[in-house]
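can u do me a favor
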């Protein structure tokens, strides 16, 4: 029977997630030679190569993919166990990884994080912005504890809480013919070049579906990976956009126009259905307190 050490599992997951032995060693606070040695021992114990090292970097093998799912589950279970033990000592400890889409206007995430840190200073919190498809994958793989996403449907293994149903608004350059209109439609916007978030984002999927349902064929001339860049591109006259109305209200360089014929966008917090750590449960409790 293969004897696998916890640190070997940790190192293997780090290599897979960073795509590099050097970055994995930096993340795990060990020298690269020590990390490489432990990965080699792990592969020897398992009797299979987990990674292929080549000129194009580190690639996960088929055996590696088979190993990584249970490995992440094991690390998540250990982290939860550590948190449960710490919670018995009346102080919540451990790590909390949060992922979010951009823009997120349904909740004041910076305020939530500030209150959380004040209440639970012993918890190490990380926050990363990702595309919704990546966030859902990370929650399923236990690489992220809680994610804020803009999708109405969740796959098996995930649970969530709907936070808001948001209206969308068109944004156009100041002086644009639509700037003086009270409302507009997908068909009218489709007459213009458009700026949108990239494929894989929840709002892009939502917008694509809205134009398809309206029978309107549009041209996305520019893609922006942040709402700030999207606003700048529209302000420079490179296209028009369709964004959450709450985000549009905060934009000072473009004009916003209400939409008809576009369904509302669902925003929710999601986490693993298999259970959460004390640190994650404490954050969800805070979210319940602060968001009606």
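np, heres the sequence
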């Amino acid at each position: 029977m293969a004897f696998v050490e916890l640190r070997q599992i940790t190192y293997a997951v780090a290599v897979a997630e960073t795509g590099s032995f050097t970055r994995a060693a930096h993340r795990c606070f060990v020298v690269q030679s020590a990390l490489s040695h432990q990965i080699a021992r792990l592969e020897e114990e398992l009797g299979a190569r987990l990674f292929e090292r080549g000129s194009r970097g580190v690639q996960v093998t088929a055996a590696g993919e088979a190993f990584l799912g249970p490995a992440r589950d094991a690390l998540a279970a250990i982290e939860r166990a550590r948190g449960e033990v710490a919670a018995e000592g009346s102080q919540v400890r451990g790590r909390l990884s949060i992922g979010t889409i951009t823009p997120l206007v349904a909740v004041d995430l910076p305020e939530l994080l500030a209150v959380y840190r004040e209440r639970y200073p012993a918890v190490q919190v990380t926050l990363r912005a990702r595309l919704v498809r990546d966030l859902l994958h990370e929650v399923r793989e236990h690489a992220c504890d809680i994610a804020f996403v803009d999708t109405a449907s969740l796959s098996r293994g995930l649970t969530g809480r709907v936070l808001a149903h948001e209206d969308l608004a068109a944004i156009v350059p100041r002086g644009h013919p639509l700037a003086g209109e009270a409302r507009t439609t997908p068909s009218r916007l489709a007459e213009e070049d458009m700026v949108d978030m990239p494929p894989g984002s929840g709002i892009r999927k939502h917008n694509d579906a809205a134009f398809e349902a309206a029978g309107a064929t549009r041209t996305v001339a520019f893609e922006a990976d942040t709402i700030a860049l999207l606003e700048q591109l529209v302000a420079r006259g490179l296209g028009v956009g369709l964004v959450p109305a709450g985000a549009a209200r905060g934009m000072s360089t473009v004009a916003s126009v209400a939409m008809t014929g576009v369904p509302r966008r669902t925003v929710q917090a999601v986490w693993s259905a298999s259970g959460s750590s004390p640190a994650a449960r404490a954050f969800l409790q805070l979210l319940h307190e602060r968001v009606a």
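The two ends are 52 Å apart (CA to CA). hope that helps!!
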